[in-house]
Amino acid sequence: MGYIEELRGIVGHRPLIFVGSVTILIDEFGRLLLQQRKFPLGAWGITGGLMELGESTEEVAKREVFEETGLKIDKLNLINVYSGSQNNIKAENGDEFYVVTVAYYSEDFEGELSVDKAESITFEFFHPNELPKNIVKSHKVILDEFLSKHYKYKTVIR
After folding, report:
1. Is residue 64 part of a domain?
2. Where residue 131 sits, what CATH number does that domain have?
3. Could you report how far apart the first and last alpha carbons of the chain are, in Å?
4. Is residue 120 part of a domain?
5. Whole-structure pTM value
6. How far apart, in whole angstroms, are the C-alpha atoms of residue 101 and residue 63?
7. pLDDT 10s digits, 101-158
8. DSSP 145
């Protein structure tokens, strides 16, 4: 049992604040890796998750990418930190929480892409002008900021 599950056992469904990290991975063609999620079913999002006790946000980013994709990241670049009332989530089981999300991007990763079937349906690299429509709303905000301020590929290679 992890920290969040233990905490929920104590406080029940009451609103909590959690910190998490997400990471946009960019391949050599300038495509972005997105995860088709099981929760919410079929929605696309950025790989990431919540912090465990003692972790830095960078460690969360690297751990979550490895757990969900089998890929190892070296260098992370900060996109921004996202917080506020728009980051309120109410889970189907009644748990309510606010997430402070630290978003990163990296072009420095290695390994064989594998899918953790517990959390993901699939992973796919997308060109920025071909992103799927059904993207988690908070992740769309992060992707939009990344593409407008940090994305260095000016022409999309097909």
Report:
1. yes
2. 3.90.79.10
3. 44
4. yes
5. 0.92
6. 15
7. 999 999 999 999 999 898 899 999 999 999 999 999 999 999 999 999 999 886 554 5
8. H
